[in-house]
Design brief:
The structure holds two protein chains of two kinds. By secondary structure, chain A is of the alpha/beta class. Chain A contains eleven helices and 23 strands. Classes of the chains: A alpha/beta, B alpha/beta.
């Protein structure tokens, strides 16, 4: 018993390794949220009038939600009320002229990304990975852009897309997640600062992984990025995002919106490795990760696949979803959420079946240690016209120790009786018997935990692009490191 | 190789071993027999370091080292292997990955070369033959959905992979039909050598027809009450444990 308790204690205590702060001069919006804040951000970005109007519409809607006290309260998470007037909504490293090449980036920022293991200099990059790096509120660098442009692929920051591709932005931005969708999506629509934009033209298979790396640096700032990926007919793209933040005592808000859109026969594979600062041992500080991610399989035979490995944040509130509109379209959700210390995660997915013969697969794995609470919340909805819809859901929980919790809340709503739905769920604990069996074969208790947890997550890890699967495995191992056998 | 001196041990506060002594030398096979509840499995588990069992007094030396103060994984690394009576299932962990992790942990502790996936794969291919095990079984989760016979073969396979100095086999024959018993027994025989030793815990004599022991001990009520050679096992087979139990009781009551 003592060894297990020790391991659990150590697991819960494992330190955050990306907690450093970069010393760089920043340009900030005045603290707080007002119409002026929205105008400030829009002006900073030199946005056209239509963009400002769309922001202001969202801002006024947000104000009315706050007045009516319509804050989301349904999730299984608890936190003190957020003071929306105490957040800095825009922080950009100076100087802020348009960058012509990577040489113009503040060397301090380049160093930051190097420390994080993400070199931005193209020649050093792994072949086959293009990176867009977002530092606080703005996109710092997008690599391999010319190479991609040869095939007609657009991969740039959201700010640039607003300037250079207004038709695409007008048509698609907010088409999957409208500004009225939910509280944090509304806030994001008003104050979003930057993010990645990606367009894959008809029939093009994107030759490399596209990556965005998000970093929150400035104290007291929130990060509100906006990502939009459009896969036109018959195209394919695999996209990965990674996240981290310095260690700070106060909580920081991250309220992003990601929209994916697939036309006929197109496919988007979206993977996330989220490692925001989770707060300290007592649960102080950390990121509030309130994110809206949704994909729309608009076209026939199209496919959207979400894979996420979540190890960070004080609170995660996130439900990457797919609207299966096109006939024969496919939605997938693969998730590993590791919570330890006082972390809270309420995460899952929504699959909305609209078209005929639509299929969805949900595999969610939750691991809890310490005092952490881990909730799976899922909704499978089959609408009247969705004949022969098919869903398979599996949500499993693994508990380390006896002070943590795992909760499963699967909702099902079926309005077409040809639907076929399967659901599996189990909760397991790493047992004393299993640990002794491993010990008896020479495997230490720490290695045994890693082995069992990796086995538990296998179904999800195999969905990740190869090098990221390695990274995810390492990340979990790192989170469990320092345990004594 | 192994010296057990006046060992007392308990499970859940109840004393099961009440002063057991045993000496095992390299090259020997010792059979430990006894009725249900006599302490056979307790002996096996205490030697392997199962945390559910507590050694309360006595001493155990393994190759001159104080075994009872060692962590279970360090006992394994020192060459002690327990063939479990009821091996546990580990969901999601592939058996061949598990065996490689086990093998490499032990290699590493000795400062020896670890094996990569490909090398270990070839190594394992050689070993599965010993217990006539289907190689595909090693690609499934550890013991998950295995039949009773498959679990026992798996234990012997792991013994073959790790080549321990001292193997303690806790009822490797329980629940096996005659054919499976013969396979398991032949596997054990192939692993006998002048350098290693085996303690074979069993309730029945029949496995001893295949794995012929050098010494046979009978445990009753937490102590070895009788030791002998192969013939002792046959005697017990003929008479049952009742006779011995009675004589032990009369001895204990007379003080």
């Amino acid at each position: 018993m003592t060894t297990t308790n020790q391991v659990v204690k150590d697991v819960a205590k494992q330190e955050y390794k990306y907690g450093f702060v970069t010393d760089v001069e920043s340009e900030l919006a005045p603290r707080g949220l007002s119409e002026d804040t929205v105008r400030f951000i829009s002006a900073k970005k030199n946005e056209p009038e239509w963009m400002l109007e769309s922001r202001l519409k969202a801002y006024h809607h947000f104000v009315s939600l706050v007045e009516k006290e319509q804050l989301p309260t349904w999730a299984n998470i608890s936190y003190p009320p957020i003071d929306f007037q105490d957040i800095i909504y825009y922080a950009a490293p100076k100087p802020k002229e348009t960058l012509e090449s990577l040489d113009q980036i503040d060397p301090e920022i380049l160093k930051t990304y190097e420390k994080l293991g993400i070199p931005l200099e193209e020649q050093k990059l792994l072949a086959g990975v293009a990176v867009d790096a977002v530092f606080d509120s703005v996109s710092i660098a997008t690599t391999f852009r010319e190479e991609l442009a040869k095939q007609g692929i657009i991969f740039c920051s959201m700010s640039e897309a607003v300037q250079n591709h207004p038709d695409l932005i007008k048509k698609y931005l907010g088409s999957v997640v409208p500004y009225t969708d939910n509280f944090y999506a509304t806030l994001n629509a008003a104050v979003f600062s930057d993010g990645s934009f990606c367009y894959i033209p008809k029939g093009v298979r994107c030759p490399m992984e596209l990556t965005t790396y998000f970093r929150i640096n400035t104290q007291g700032s929130g990060q509100f990025e906006r990502t939009l990926i459009i896969a036109d007919e018959g195209s394919y793209v695999s996209y990965l995002e990674g996240c981290s933040a310095p260690m700070r005592d106060e909580n920081q808000l991250h309220a992003a919106v990601v929209e994916l859109y697939t036309a006929d026969n197109a496919e988007i594979k979206y993977s996330t490795i989220q490692n925001w600062y989770p707060g300290n041992e007592e649960g102080k500080g950390g990121i509030y990760n309130f994110v809206t991610k949704r994909g729309k399989c608009a076209g026939r035979n199209s496919k959207i696949s979400w894979t996420q490995v979540e190890t960070g944040s004080a609170i995660t509130w996130k439900y990457p979803s797919v609207i299966l509109q096109g006939d024969n379209s496919i939605g997938e959700f693969y998730s590993v959420a590791l919570t330890k210390g006082y972390q809270q995660a309420d995460t899952g997915t929504k699959m909305t079946h609209l078209g005929k013969n639509t299929r969805s697969t949900i595999i969610a794995k939750g691991i809890s240690a310490g005092h952490a609470q881990n909730t799976y919340r899922g909704l499978v909805r089959v609408m009247p016209k969705a004949t022969n819809a098919w869903n398979f859901t599996q949500c499993d929980s693994l508990l380390l120790g006896d002070q943590c919790g795992a909760h499963t809340t699967p909702y099902v709503e079926v309005r077409n009786n040809t639907a076929h739905l399967e659901h599996e769920a189990f909760t397991s604990k790493v047992s004393e018997d299993q640990l002794f069996y491993c010990n008896q074969r020479g495997i230490s208790t720490e290695e045994a935990h890693a082995l069992i947890i990796n086995g538990f997550c296998k179904d999800v890890f195999k969905q990740l692009p190869l090098e990221f699967a390695v990274e995810a495995t390492r990340l979990l191992e790192m989170n469990l490191e320092g345990t004594v056998g | 190789m192994l010296e057990v001196k006046d060992l007392h041990a308990s499970v859940g506060g109840v004393e099961i071993l009440k002063g057991l002594s045993l000496r095992v030398k390299a090259g020997e096979v010792h059979a430990i027999m006894g009725p249900n509840g006599s302490g056979k499995s307790t002996l096996a588990n205490v030697l392997a370091g199962n945390p559910s069992y507590t050694a309360t007094s006595g001493e155990v030396l393994f190759e001159g080292e104080d075994l009872l103060t060692m962590l279970p994984e360090n006992r394994a690394r020192a060459g002690l292997f327990l063939c479990f009576q009821h091996p546990t299932e580990i969901h999601g962990v592939r058996l061949d990955h598990f065996m490689r992790a086990s093998f490499n942990s032990i290699q590493k502790s000795k400062g020896l070369q670890e094996m990569d996936v490909l090398k270990f794969d070839r190594f394992l291919n050689e070993k599965v033959g010993i217990v006539e095990m289907d190689r595909n079984l090693t690609k499934r989760s550890v013991n998950e959905g295995f039949s009773g016979g498959e679990k026992k073969r798996n234990e012997i396979l792991q013994m073959a992979v790790l080549a321990p100095k001292l193997a303690i086999l806790d009822e490797p024959d329980s629940g096996l039909d005659v054919d499976a018993l013969r396979t398991v027994a032949e596997g054990i025989n192939q692993l006998r050598s002048p350098e290693n030793a085996i303690i074979l815990v069993t309730h029945y004599q029949r496995i001893l027809d295949y794995v012929v022991p050098d010494n046979v001990h009978v445990i009753i009520n937490g102590r070895i009450v009788k030791s002998g050679d192969k013939k002792l096992a046959l005697e017990i087979e003929a008479q049952g444990y009742d006779e011995l139990e009675k004589s032990v009781e009369s001895l204990q009551s007379s003080g």
